Amino acid sequence: MKSVLDSNRPIYIQIKETIEEDILNGRLLPDEQIPSNSQLVSHYNINPVTVLKGINLLVDEGIIYKKRGLGMYVSPDAPEKLKKRFSQAFFQEQIEPLTALAKPLGFSLQEIHEMIDSAWKGEKND
Questions:
Q1: Coil/strand/helix, residue 49
Q2: Helices 48-60/11-24 angle, 10° precision
Q3: In which region does residue 48 sit, left (phi positive, over 0), alpha (psi from -120 to 50) or beta (all else)?
Q4: Residue-wise pLDDT tens digits, 98-112
Q5: Can you tell me the mean pLDDT for 52-74?
Q6: pLDDT in tens, 5-46
Q7: Contact (CB, 8 A) for 55 and 37
Q8: The pLDDT value given to residue 36
């Protein structure tokens, strides 16, 4: 769990995103229980309705499910669902704008690959 939430964004969205990040990063595994509503309320010192709103979004998306009387658990296919959604968003938000800018600048596909390889390795592009 994140230690602090951003005051400039809806808290329920940040609760949802925190759980999604924990699933994607393997901190929460399929069929593993997520932190309880009361744990999230206590940890972030927020209203229980706010937590419930974020949790319900995850339930609606099939990312988590409820075991009656036991709590909320990560759906078996949650990592794959999240990777697919984030991959699509990454393509639309990063790759398409990158190519739209690179083409008019005259970069070849090979040059773009080299720049990405360099950035991946943490090297500076001079």
A1: helix
A2: 50
A3: alpha
A4: 999 999 999 999 999
A5: 96
A6: 788 899 999 999 999 999 999 999 999 999 999 999 999 999
A7: yes
A8: 94
- With both helix axes pointing from N to C terminus, report the angle between 11-24 and 37-44 in degrees, rounded to the nearest 10: 110
* Residue whose token pair is 């927020």: 46
Distances (CA, A) of 101 to 25, 46, 58, 89, 126: 31, 42, 35, 18, 19
Read off the tokens for 18.
């925190």
3-state SS, residue 102: helix
Two tokens, residue 103: 């083409």
Residue positions counted in the chain:
126
